[in-house]
Write a sequence for this structure.
């Protein structure tokens, strides 16, 4: 009897490292295609070539290949048998996929090192099967924490390589050989392809030491709120990437980061001596502050420290009711250029908006 795959049977890997604290993983792709229409006929399908069997064996013609992507010069007949393409459609946009991961921060923020324009591979495994991707780029990464909860992270990934699952594979004579399973668990060679293993990210690389925190070891420092009680915090990093495609290749030849990098930071506090700002004041002198969030373990040792430099206050949201405390939510935005604030383009996690 077939059984469902339970949570404890699943493992998620990034570039050979099994990630701890993962709560959910979602991966998907959607192919955008458009039909080929011909004047006087409509959608081109097998019936469009219904007269092909009238040609002689030696006569040649043009046909679309079975994938419908290019023209090939081939014989229109083979020993009297009609050669016709299937119902035809072509890609209307490049092939892309997406992944998203929700995790509890049980150690240092592992995904920070993958921010930027360096691709990586990830896959989720259950038993002998897996679903994964290669050539992924993080487009958004966020951290949230609140009173009574463990800090959580959320990561969104765009995939410009391949995404999906593969049959079993082994390396044979320097090549990756794929297998399909038959009856009695017998395996038969299916194909030889590098991509059959390209999105298998499993490995034995060690994960950083597991260390947990509690609300008493999380601190937030920001000018003007030292006397108020912060009840929740969120910080997100948005990285826009631009894939560049060239004729003759189905893969992105290059993926560039679109600068500036934007960060959005917000926190909610219970009002004590907080001084409200004026909306019109922004036109003359925007409120610019440094924000520091320190997440330590139960012994006071640093797990992850985030520092937002020159954060600009862009919103205040006050809330009051008869059955609750008066609160205000503050929203900040900050920008980071390729030069100046960013010391190393290839290592965004060491930029000034994140303090290791």
């Amino acid at each position: 009897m077939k059984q469902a795959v339970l949570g404890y049977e699943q493992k998620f890997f990034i570039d050979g490292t099994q990630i701890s604290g993962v709560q959910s993983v979602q991966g998907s792709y959607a192919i955008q295609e458009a039909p080929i229409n011909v004047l006087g006929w409509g959608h081109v399908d097998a019936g469009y070539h219904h007269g092909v069997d009238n040609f002689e064996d030696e006569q040649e013609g043009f046909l679309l290949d079975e994938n419908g992507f290019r023209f090939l010069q081939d014989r229109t007949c083979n020993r009297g048998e009609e050669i016709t393409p299937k119902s035809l459609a072509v890609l209307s946009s490049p092939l892309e996929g997406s992944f998203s991961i929700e995790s509890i921060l049980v150690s240092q923020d592992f995904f920070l090192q993958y921010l930027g324009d360096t691709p990586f591979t990830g896959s989720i495994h259950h038993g002998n099967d897996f679903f994964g991707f290669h050539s992924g780029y993080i487009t958004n990464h966020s951290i949230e924490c609140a009173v009574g909860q463990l800090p959580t992270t959320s990561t969104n990934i765009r995939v410009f390589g391949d995404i999906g699952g593969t049959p079993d594979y082994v390396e044979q004579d320097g090549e990756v050989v794929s297998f399909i399973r038959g009856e009695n668990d017998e395996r038969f060679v299916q194909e030889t392809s590098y991509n059959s293993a390209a999105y298998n990210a499993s490995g034995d690389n060690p994960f950083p030491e597991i260390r947990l925190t509690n609300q008493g070891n999380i601190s937030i420092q920001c000018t003007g709120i030292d006397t108020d009680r912060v009840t929740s915090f969120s910080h997100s990093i948005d990285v826009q990437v631009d894939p560049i495609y060239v004729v003759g290749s189905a893969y992105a030849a290059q993926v560039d980061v679109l600068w500036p990098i934007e960060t959005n930071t917000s926190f909610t506090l219970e009002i004590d001596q907080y001084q409200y700002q004026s909306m019109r004041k922004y036109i003359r002198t925007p409120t610019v502050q440094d924000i520091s969030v320190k997440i330590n373990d139960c012994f006071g040792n640093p797990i992850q420290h985030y520092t937002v430099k020159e954060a600009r206050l862009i919103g205040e949201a006050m809330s009051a009711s008869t059955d609750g405390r008066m609160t205000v939510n503050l929203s900040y935005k900050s920008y980071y250029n390729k030069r100046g604030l960013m010391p190393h383009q290839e290592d965004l996690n060491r930029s000034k908006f994140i303090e290791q």
